[in-house]
Write a structure and sequence with these properties.
Length: 282
C-alpha cells in the first residue's frame, strides 16, 4: 500500500530486479521516478489530507498499444496516464499559491518523432503551456476547447509557442496535428490544483485536499469506455466517478485497483486484446 514507505521501497527493489533480470542490465532507478516515490505524504495540518492509489492490469493482462494510447509497465502491470481529478472543491490549500504565482509556472509539451510528449498534460488556469517542435519537419498544434479560444498554429523545426488558458475544462481536450492526423495529445485545464496522472507504475497522489467533507473525483483515460473517457475501474464507479472523504491530516488510500478490459474501448485494437499468455512464445 502506498501509505507504507517500507513496502514501497521493497516494491521498488523488486521492480529493479525484475527489469534487470530481463535485460541483463542492473541500474537503480532515480528516486523521482521510482514506483511509489513521494506517495502518501501527510498534510500540513488537520484540515487537509491526501488521496492516493495505484491502477494496474486485471487478470487479463492487457498490453500497451503501438500508438501509446494505452501504456502498461511490463513487470508490474502498472497503467500510465490515468487522470484523477476533483470535480469540485470548497477550498484550496494556501501552499498552492495565488494566481500571480501560477503565472510563473510552466509545463512543456514537446513534439518529437511525430508524437506529442507527454501524451496527457494537466495544468491550472493561467499556468503557461510551452509547445516545442523538436522534429526536422513542420507540425500544426490544433486544439479546439469547448470554451475559450481555439489554437491553430504552425510550428517549424525548432519553433516554440506559448499558450495560457483563462477557462477551465471539465474534461481533457484533444490536441492534433493537421499535417499528421495520427498525432494525438490531451490537455486538461483546471481552476484548482487537485489533479494527478498515474506514473509508469500506475501510482498517483493528490496532496492537501480539503478534509472532512465528501469530494467527487473523476477518473479518466483516453480509452475509457464510459462517457467522455470516464474510466469505471470499479463497478460502482459510474461514469468513472468516485466519492470519498479525506481524513484530517491523513491519507485516503484507494489501494491497488485492477482494471478489466471492459473498462476500456478496445474496438479495432487487436494489440491490446491479446493477453501475456497469447503473446508468449509457444
Amino acid at each position: 500500500m502506498c501509505t507504507e514507505p517500507t513496502t514501497r521501497r521493497a516494491f521498488e527493489i523488486c521492480v529493479v530486479l525484475l527489469t534487470s533480470c530481463a535485460t541483463g542490465v542492473f541500474a537503480v532507478e532515480p528516486a523521482a521516478t521510482a514506483p511509489g516515490a513521494h506517495r502518501a505524504t501527510r498534510a500540513d495540518s488537520d484540515g487537509w489530507g491526501t488521496l492516493c492509489g495505484r491502477f494496474v492490469n486485471g487478470p487479463d493482462k492487457l498490453l500497451s498499444t503501438s500508438d501509446n494510447a494505452l501504456v502498461v509497465e511490463p513487470a508490474t502491470g502498472g497503467i500510465k496516464n490515468v487522470l484523477v481529478y476533483a470535480r469540485k472543491v470548497s477550498r484550496v490549500h494556501p501552499s498552492y499559491g495565488s494566481e500571480s504565482v501560477r503565472s510563473e509556472r510552466e509545463t512543456l509539451l514537446e513534439i518529437r518523432e511525430h508524437a506529442f510528449d507527454p501524451r496527457v498534460v494537466a495544468l491550472r488556469l493561467y499556468e503557461l503551456l510551452r509547445i516545442r517542435n523538436r522534429d526536422p519537419v513542420s507540425h500544426v498544434f490544433l486544439m479546439r476547447p469547448p470554451v475559450g479560444m481555439e489554437t491553430n498554429l504552425l510550428l517549424g523545426p525548432g519553433d516554440e509557442i506559448e499558450r495560457r488558458f483563462r477557462d477551465k475544462h471539465y474534461l481533457p481536450v484533444v490536441v492534433n496535428c493537421s499535417f499528421h492526423p495520427w498525432m494525438t495529445a490531451y490537455v486538461l485545464v483546471r481552476d484548482d490544483p487537485y489533479f494527478a496522472l498515474t506514473d509508469s507504475y500506475g501510482w498517483f497522489e493528490i496532496r492537501n485536499l480539503p478534509a472532512g467533507e465528501e469530494i467527487e473525483f473523476q477518473v479518466w483515460h483516453e480509452l475509457g469506455a464510459g462517457p467522455h473517457g470516464g474510466l469505471a475501474a470499479k463497478p460502482e464507479w459510474s461514469k468513472g466517478r468516485l466519492r470519498g472523504t479525506i481524513p484530517h491530516g491523513g491519507v485516503l488510500d484507494l489501494g491497488t485497483i485492477e482494471i478489466a478490459p471492459g473498462a476500456f474501448r478496445l474496438e479495432n485494437r487487436l494489440d491490446v486484446n491479446r493477453t501475456v499468455r497469447d503473446s508468449a512464445p509457444r
